[in-house]
Amino acid sequence: MKKIILGMVLSLAVSIGFAEQPLITSKSPPEKLKSIKAKEEELKESYCMIVLSLAEASIKAKQAGTPIKKSIEVSKQYFSDDDTLNLRIILKELIMDAYSQPDYLSEEYKKRQLNEFTSKHYLNCMSAAGLR
């Protein structure tokens, strides 16, 4: 019987404690959360800009006639430590995609190819980051 009464008293105390807490009537997140979310989005977008730059370098190297072996070797040298492993993997994928694209002689077609290739990879990155 004592346990039941104690349980009821504790339950009532907890209920009163929660009842005294102010309610958040605003549906918008607090300013601090907005700031954190904005910074997170900014970092994601910066990362996607890096991906765009790597895509650009990859397709330009291919268009310039750089052998794929040389591009892969340079990527390993440029991103050699563990901190950049993810970027090295992405760059290798970009190189493989770039070198699978058709060859064009016209500068106009090369510019189009550059724009389409970099846009595709930037948009894919933004989509994967949840920013699109």
Protein model, in words:
The protein has five helices and no strands. It is flat, with a radius of gyration of 27 Å. Helix 2 (about 30-65) crosses helix 4 (about 85-100), helix 2 (about 30-65) runs antiparallel to helix 5 and helix 3 (about 70-80) runs antiparallel to helix 4. Residues about 1-20 have low confidence and may be disordered. It has about 130 residues and is mainly alpha-helical.
List its traits.
132 residues, mainly alpha, 0% strand, flat
User: What is the alpha-carbon Rg in Å?
Assistant: 27 Å
Total strands: the figure is 0
Roughly what fraction of the amino acids lie in strands? under 5%
Summing up helix and strand content along with how strands pair, one would put the structural category as: mainly alpha
Q: What is the mean pLDDT?
A: 82
- In percent, how helical is the residue content? over 70%
For the sheet with most strands, the description reads: none
Low-confidence stretches: 1-21
How do the helices and strands follow one another from N- to C-terminus? HHHHH
Distance between the termini: 60 Å
From the spread of the alpha carbons, the general shape counts as flat
Give the helix tally.
5
Count of domains: 1
Question: Short summary of the structure?
Answer:
The protein is built from five helices and no strands. It is mostly helical and 132 residues long.
